[in-house]
Write a structure and sequence with these properties.
Elements: E1 11-19, H1 43-52, E2 58-61, H2 65-75, E3 85-87, H3 104-109, H4 131-148, E4 153-158, H5 160-170, E5 188-196, E6 199-209, H6 231-234
Parallel strand pairs: 1-4, 2-3, 2-4
Antiparallel strand pairs: 1-5, 5-6
Helix pairs in contact: 1-2, 4-5
Length: 235
């Protein structure tokens, strides 16, 4: 007799997160939820991303146009265009309020050495959100969509903060620890939700995968998703 007899079958819902393409017209300023365009001119990057994404997935994106432009660039490689792509406002980047439009380098230089985000996770930007606010709305939407799309592949085009929040959920709700992960532009992060009876858990098969990186000319894809520790900051 099989030892698995009577055990509930596992339902695996695979999330494929793609961060939007680089923003070039921010003037060196923090942009947060500002609805500005991204640069999708590096076709080799999108061809590489398209090769590792599943073909029969359902598509979601934030309500900000840079995620829609990134999806369009993937489809332009010949990737099958989905019949629909749901625009999910809960997947927008953190609303950084009055910090949006401030010079990024000067702002980050004012933060403690080793900071992984714009502020502590529970500190809201003036007129905006805290990272915990972002985490709460993103993870609530993930739970809802995971239930709605159970057993399917879900491709979600989002933002650095959005994807870090998803990683935090997969780590067991460690909202602060997820900020230590890098999420580069156009990178792919796969998070698998596994449900079986009363069991609900996550696996992290792939975080910040950059399938184009064999060629150094694509290094310009890298933009910080939140503060980074650099030599100049440590000096």
């Amino acid at each position: 007799m099989s030892g698995n007899q009577g055990r509930p079958a596992a339902v695996v819902t695979r999330w494929w997160w793609v961060r939007h393409a680089p923003v070039r017209n921010d003037g060196g300023n923090i942009y947060g939820q500002s609805d500005i365009a991204c640069d999708t001119s590096d076709t080799e990057v999108f061809e590489a991303v398209a090769k590792i994404l599943p073909r029969n997935a359902v598509w979601y994106a934030s309500n900000l146009k840079r995620t829609h432009q990134t999806a369009e660039a993937i489809w332009a490689t010949g990737f099958p265009r989905p019949a629909t792509m749901t625009r999910e406002a809960a997947f927008a980047e953190q609303n950084l309020g009055q910090w949006q439009g401030m010079n990024r380098q000067a702002f980050l230089a004012s933060q403690p050495v080793g900071s992984n985000w714009f502020a502590s996770i529970d500190q809201p930007a003036p007129g905006g959100e805290s990272f915990i606010d972002l985490y709460t709305r993103v993870t609530s939407a993930i739970a809802r969509i995971t239930a709605d799309e159970a057993g399917r592949d879900v491709i979600a085009v989002g933002h650095g903060g959005t994807i870090k929040a998803a990683v935090g959920l997969a780590l067991g709700g460690l909202a602060e620890k997820c900020l230590a992960f890098d999420i580069d532009n156009c990178s792919v992060t796969r998070l698998d939700h596994i449900a079986a009876g009363d069991v609900s858990t996550w696996r992290l098969p792939m975080v910040n995968q950059q399938p184009w990186m064999a060629d150094a000319k694509h290094r310009a894809m890298h933009q910080p998703a939140g503060p980074e520790v650099t030599t100049s900051k440590l000096a």
